[in-house]
Amino acid sequence: MARSASSSSSVITAAMASEASVKVIDGKKVAKDIRDEINAEISRMKDSIGVVPGLAVILVGERKDSATYVRNKKKACETVGIKSYEVCLPENSTEEEVLKYISDFNDDPMVHGILVQLPLPSHMDEQNILNAVCIEKDVDGFHPLNIGRLAMRGRETSFVPCTPKGCIELLHRYNVEIKGKRAVVIGRSNIVGTPAALLLQREDATVSIVHSRTRNPEEITRQADIIISAVGQPNMVRGSWIKPGAVIIDVGINPVEDATNPRGYRLVGDVCYEEACKVASAITPVPGGVGPMTIAMLLSNTLLSAKRIHNFK
Amino acid sequence: MARSASSSSSVITAAMASEASVKVIDGKKVAKDIRDEINAEISRMKDSIGVVPGLAVILVGERKDSATYVRNKKKACETVGIKSYEVCLPENSTEEEVLKYISDFNDDPMVHGILVQLPLPSHMDEQNILNAVCIEKDVDGFHPLNIGRLAMRGRETSFVPCTPKGCIELLHRYNVEIKGKRAVVIGRSNIVGTPAALLLQREDATVSIVHSRTRNPEEITRQADIIISAVGQPNMVRGSWIKPGAVIIDVGINPVEDATNPRGYRLVGDVCYEEACKVASAITPVPGGVGPMTIAMLLSNTLLSAKRIHNFK
């Protein structure tokens, strides 16, 4: 499924011969750069104070996709030198058992970040479990206290949720100016849309949030210099929604049927890529855009947590 | 300074003879209705479980305006049957002294709401002091955990900050539809603009936030069906900023020089009232609009807190 950054960009160039100016935002490459930077920082920390950052991941149940995510996180930890601690519990575990592990990790000085893989089995109270992760180790950034700090001016954020943090990091690394720009975030989920809007606002963009109840999403989106789309609707954002020269960050990863693909499907974003390439000035591909950034930001948050806890600059 | 609701609306009618359709949103009257409702609820609670809601107010220093606010809050408590506890500390008190009072009120079962009058003297850490108020008694709703819950879908809010809550309450009481409407909030303060935007979004408006870094505030504001302005700039929002038929909630209370007024000044809003009346379908006057609602919402939050703590339905 994953194509290399170079083949991805050559596909674009070929298809867009006449509109060759669109820049493809290469999330795979940026994520690799970030992992290299994290790796260097972790070596420096280890050499200087002997601390190795640790990330605990709790997986409950046998969902295949969740198991894959957890495996990928573990691998990513290894590449940068973060020690990962993994707990896999059976589907029929009790909430108390999960809470016990969280409590132990909260107290464990080797663990600097705790992540509970979602979704949890339906007999568990997700909110209750997520709230049990102590705020200093909530590297996912989903705690309401984290979101509140993100929303408030003059407050330092503790942890920024990984996917929206990855979106903003891509804008930064590609030198996209945010201050004073119109930004439209499509989707208002707790884990992407809402924190992405709050982050853009922190950087002085003028932000509008478009969602399922918005009456004229196309008209509003067309005003944006920066579009972040996170709705999970394949190809929803058409070329006509896009202001010429806009920068597009596409968070959607949607499977669509594709008989020519050995798996029978391929992944597309929320944004109709072919049309967008003719209008936008820069765009993230799917896959290879925002996707690789999420785990990179998780590693970044874990390093940040270890630095904070050990007061390492 | 305060003019009665009836004289206020007759002024409008006279000035707007040709555009007589604008509705003046009478915050004074709505606040009175709400106080009456709170009063009835408090009687019911007292008769039923013998509990009287209590609000503690801490005032530090001798600022005249702060003293006035505290006095008004105390008076308002009396009118609805809330018992108020007042602590006035000298300007040169230490942070520890203030924290000690907060801690005592946190533990006091007679106290259901705690309010620290801002601003605090400059030698105190405001954030530190506000964070000391336990979340169950934070009737001001300024704690980041409260703001985070407000921002997150599917989370119940604990306390909504009083001024933005008052803005939305005015829209509700005047049957202004919010769902699916375009809303623009001008200003992004932690105590008004940001929570107002989050509240509008919770009610399914499509929200844009305009602020000091916004390049084309007039153009964006003109798209709004609902405008909430909270910037503190007298008459900043002109008639040309307003879409015909928009509903305007003006939070600004700005003194401007006025030689004809015995005090030498009069209060105006952020919105140029005379111009707005010709375009908008409804508008809050200043004074007599949002102003009276803030204290009414403080009383409402205090009652809510007492009901929650005593599990009284």
UniProtKB/TrEMBL annotation, chains A, B:
Residue ranges occupied by any Tetrahydrofolate dehydrogenase/cyclohydrolase catalytic domain in the UniProt entry: 25-140
Reaction equation(s) it catalyzes: (6R)-5,10-methenyltetrahydrofolate + H2O = (6R)-10-formyltetrahydrofolate + H(+); (6R)-5,10-methylene-5,6,7,8-tetrahydrofolate + NADP(+) = (6R)-5,10-methenyltetrahydrofolate + NADPH
**Pathway recorded for this protein:** One-carbon metabolism; tetrahydrofolate interconversion
Q: Does the keyword Hydrolase apply?
A: yes
Domain of life of the source:
Eukaryota
UniProt keywords (A-Z) are: Hydrolase, Multifunctional enzyme, NADP, One-carbon metabolism, Oxidoreductase, Photorespiration
One Pfam match: THF_DHG_CYH_C
Q: Which residues form the Tetrahydrofolate dehydrogenase/cyclohydrolase NAD(P)-binding domain?
A: 161-308
Which cellular component appears as one GO term in the record? cytosol
Q: Which InterPro entries match?
A: Aminoacid_DH-like_N_sf, NAD(P)-bd_dom_sf, THF_DH/CycHdrlase, THF_DH/CycHdrlase_cat_dom, THF_DH/CycHdrlase_CS, THF_DH/CycHdrlase_NAD-bd_dom
GO molecular function ontology, one term from the record: methylenetetrahydrofolate dehydrogenase (NADP+) activity
**One GO BP annotation of this record:** tetrahydrofolate interconversion
Job of this protein: Catalyzes the oxidation of 5,10-methylenetetrahydrofolate to 5,10-methenyltetrahydrofolate and then the hydrolysis of 5,10-methenyltetrahydrofolate to 10-formyltetrahydrofolate.
Q: Which family does it belong to?
A: Belongs to the tetrahydrofolate dehydrogenase/cyclohydrolase family.
* Quaternary structure annotation from Swiss-Prot or TrEMBL: Homodimer.
Query: What name is this protein filed under?
Result: Bifunctional protein FolD 4, chloroplastic
| Organism placement in taxonomy | Eukaryota, Viridiplantae, Streptophyta, Embryophyta, Tracheophyta
